[in-house]
Design goal:
single chain; mainly beta; 18-stranded mixed sheet; 11-stranded mixed sheet; 1 helix; elongated
């Protein structure tokens, strides 16, 4: 190994293959070095073999000669490492591996001719591939962008980056990856490309050979054209992967993991299809059979107030009758399912990429104050439920199934997970709702609060963690003391205990009250289920300036939740439903 520093130094060979840097050796263009370390005369005279390294802290272009000629050759497995913000010439060059390790620096390679890179690693700093669009540029290996680092594909004219390695390529890391509108990433690798990183692509992505896999927990946005060869297996989204895109008619295979049922009443999931015309069949794993491999697949019928199983094809109302005359998934509709075995379900088909209008929602019992319909998120990403949705006779609160609580959780402003069903509350006949494609989002967050609101989420969990229930009390300038369908949501029973607030005669899962200008007392209903011991915990106390006091009306205990946010209690079947009182703002402890 060697290092050049302080001025112009040279190591030259008169002939090709004259100097070899072998595995374990490294040349360093050190501080103060200037010029080209291996001169500008003999082509292919310096060879960096696999395992060797060229470390550039300063200096000029290592290739020295005009492309396609070059003084040095980077053989497969060698490394060119940049630790400063010089502007290397990529134009027409063939690299092996490249690493950018330049904290707080931005590197702008330049040139017009196609370049080739094996593995690209960005450990620190920003790499802006601001190449001109002429020709096509190749990445044949993996890309890794570390946390805090950035990779931008930013050509100055329309350009393509080809992923064309001979073995599977992986794009990974916790750093930022993006492209501008002039970029197309084209995947030509028959062994496949794995996206194991988040990316925001303003340009397009084309799968012209092989396949692409979006890994679990990864978020990919494609604002340009998304193109494949037409087979669903060419674009695979693993469970928990999230894709937002604009192009219609794109086929994909989208997976969702379903955990098996256990003892008692747990194991239920609300399910929705992100593709059109998905059959409910054995191919996707939605219908199972054999010893120890049972299943249930229900559609909710509001007119009958009944869960109807897919297995029921003979006794009215049959599944087909309540499912719009079809045995397939309906776009924008949800289903409640449970399986004896944990498994991964597969949706195959054209991904939904448009608004979905759901109309004709019934309210069969006109004397009732509410009716429920099970809809579904029709996209391969989360969906933000908020007050901007176009609704008619549909309440402002939806309910999603919380598998941890084994019960419903109410949402007034928050994400509906991908491929999840959600209950909506109907308050009149011929109700409708438009599911807006513009509200797609990447999110694993479960609770959103507006910046200008005070909001408390109270969760009761059985001490054995078998089930639980949430209720939300909000304080807003637009809140009212009674039930308001534009901001409140009625209680919906699942498998957990009954836990909700009381407003007049209405049991509410979300209760939006007027802004906190004076002390407030909120009655809380609680009715036990199979469990006897429970733990109550409150979140959102940081949004309330006043003390929040919990009064246990059965025991007489009073606890300042602002000091201790967890309260343990027991319950029996003979208890009064009016179990607690929540006092906010100066009342409760001494009352």
């Amino acid at each position: 190994s060697m290092e050049f520093t302080s001025g112009a130094q040279r190591l030259t060979a008169a002939d090709a293959n004259g100097i070899f840097f072998q595995a374990g050796s490294c040349f360093t263009a050190g501080v103060g070095f200037t010029g080209n370390p291996f001169g500008k005369t003999s082509s292919n005279s310096v060879i960096f073999q696999a395992g060797s390294c060229y470390l550039s802290k300063t200096g000029e272009d290592p290739f020295a000669l005009l492309s396609p000629e070059s003084v040095i050759v980077f053989q497969t497995g060698s490394l060119y490492k940049l630790t400063t913000d010089i502007a290397p010439k990529f134009s027409g060059r063939t690299f092996a591996d490249i690493e950018i390790d330049a904290p707080m620096k931005t590197i702008w390679p330049f040139g017009n001719e196609p370049f080739s890179i094996d593995n690209l690693t960005i450990t620190n700093g920003t790499l802006n591939l601001k190449f001109a669009g002429a020709g096509g540029h190749s990445i044949k290996g993996n890309i890794s962008v570390a946390s805090g680092a950035t990779l931008n594909f930013s050509p100055t004219s329309s350009g393509t980056i080809f992923f064309n390695g001979s073995s599977q390529q992986t794009i990974s890391g916790a750093g930022a990856i993006s492209s501008n509108t002039l970029t197309t990433l084209e995947l030509q690798n028959t062994a496949g490309v794995v996206f194991d990183a988040d990316a925001e692509l303003s340009g397009g992505l084309t799968i012209s050979a092989g396949f692409m896999t979006l890994q679990s927990g990864r978020n990919l946005t494609i604002m340009g054209t998304l193109a494949t060869g037409g087979l669903a297996e060419e674009l695979i989204i693993k469970p928990g992967g999230s894709l937002i895109f604009l192009t219609a008619g794109v086929n994909a295979m989208i997976e969702r993991s379903i955990v098996a049922w256990g003892e008692g009443r747990n194991g239920w999931h609300l399910l929705s299809s992100p593709v059109g015309a998905q059959e409910i069949n054995t191919t996707g794993g939605f219908v199972t059979s054999g010893p120890g491999n049972d299943y249930d697949f229900f559609s909710w019928s509001e007119p009958h107030s009944l869960w109807v199983n897919f297995k029921n094809s003979t006794v009215s109302p049959t599944f087909t009758e309540v499912n719009g005359g079809t045995d397939a998934f309906r776009t924008g509709r949800g289903y409640m399912v449970a399986y004896e075995q944990s498994s991964v379900k597969q949706f195959k088909g054209s991904m939904n990429v448009a608004n979905v209008m759901i109309s004709g929602l019934t309210m069969t019992d006109v004397t009732a104050t509410q009716a429920w319909h099970l809809l579904g998120n029709p996209y391969p990403s989360a969906l933000l439920w908020d007050n901007s949705w176009e609704r008619s006779n549909v309440g402002a609160v939806c309910q999603v199934w919380n598998e941890t609580l084994n019960d419903y959780s109410a949402i007034q402003n928050g994400p509906i997970p991908a491929m999840n069903g959600f209950m909506v509350e109907v308050s009149g006949t011929n109700a409708s709702v438009r599911i807006p494609v513009g509200k797609r989002m990447h999110s694993n967050q479960g609770w959103y609060k507006s910046a200008d609101e005070s909001s408390l989420k109270l969760t009761v969990m059985a001490a054995d963690s078998a089930s639980g229930k949430e209720t939300v009390v909000r304080f807003s300038q637009t809140g009212t003391a009674g039930f308001d369908p534009s901001s409140d949501g009625h209680f919906l029973k699942g498998n957990g205990p009954v836990f909700c607030s009381l407003a007049g005669e209405d049991w509410l899962s979300i209760n939006t009250l007027p802004a906190l200008l004076q002390p407030v007392e909120v009655p809380l209903i609680f009715v036990k289920n199979e469990s006897d011991a429970y733990i109550l915990e409150v979140r959102g106390l940081e949004t309330i300036q006043e003390d929040v006091i919990l009064c246990d009306l059965k025991t007489g205990n009073k606890q300042n939740l602002s000091i201790d946010s967890v309260y343990a209690f027991t319950a029996s079947d003979t208890d009064s439903p009016l179990r607690f009182k929540l006092s906010v703002g100066g009342v409760g402890i001494d009352a």
